């Protein structure tokens, strides 16, 4: 599949500080999670994609436009939700979104119609007519989200979109992003520190560290253990059950959440789990394929990068 964003050997220096160091990155359709510790270069990478900073060296193609030459054309096709608040005091919520629509070239009436449509999608009711200065954090996040998508862009960039949201609003926002990707065929880049958000909705994960891409993989491949593994929740005679599996040649390890990870379970061996449970009077409460922990993958990738740069 032809990438929507393709960057080659991108370096960006701020005087004596190197923010990006030879970044090579392709981003295709779907939802991509951009991860990295503070100072890794995520914000600079986003600004490069948006054409807001000039790279020190390197080249790229963004949505068919050459990096560094067609900044305005690129931004017209991208919806950007920044991490920080960015609104004009005194405006109502609907006026903020309508202003974003006007900046994107939508006529006044069409921009107003579109703004109401998007705010309906975001779950904003009569509060859209209140001044945005009076909004809670969650309401301001909805307005930023609406302003980013009001002009129906091809590509969306969300910087810490769930920051400050309560669990229900966080889940609602993630569901809206998934709907945009699945039903409206939007491609999305999410920069976040919240790893469960990436695990919940992303198709792809990119990890930056020290201005370099240290991991770039499909999430399905990252989640897949190196050997067939089953995650079990059991109740009863756990010790006897685990010993029974050991005699059958299966390896069991208990995770921090008290589930048992059973390694080496081929389709031919799966029946052994039920036989051991019956033999030891143990109840299997749940059984599902195990997946790698994204947090462990993240920590390991960053640690290896730090060792390489030390």
Describe this structure in words.
This protein is of the alpha/beta class. 38% of the residues lie in helices and 27% in strands. It contains 11 helices and 14 strands. The strands form 3 sheets. A 6-stranded mixed sheet has the order 6-7-8-3-9-10, with helices on both faces. A 4-stranded antiparallel sheet has the order 2-1-4-5. The protein has a 4-stranded antiparallel sheet with strand order 12-13-11-14, covered by helices on one side. A hairpin with a 2-residue loop joins β4 and β5. α9 packs across α10. It is globular, with a radius of gyration of 24 Å. The two termini are 36 Å apart. The model has no long low-confidence stretch (mean pLDDT 88).
Write the layout of secondary structure elements.
Layout lengths: L4 E10 L2 E11 L3 E5 L6 H9 L6 E6 L2 E2 L4 H6 L1 E4 L11 H11 L4 H14 L15 H13 L5 E5 L7 H17 L3 E5 L3 H7 L2 E6 L2 E7 H5 L5 E7 L2 H10 L3 E4 L5 E4 L6 H10 L3 E7 L4 H16 L1
Parallel strand pairs: 3-8, 3-9, 6-7, 7-8
Antiparallel strand pairs: 1-2, 1-4, 4-5, 9-10, 11-13, 11-14, 12-13
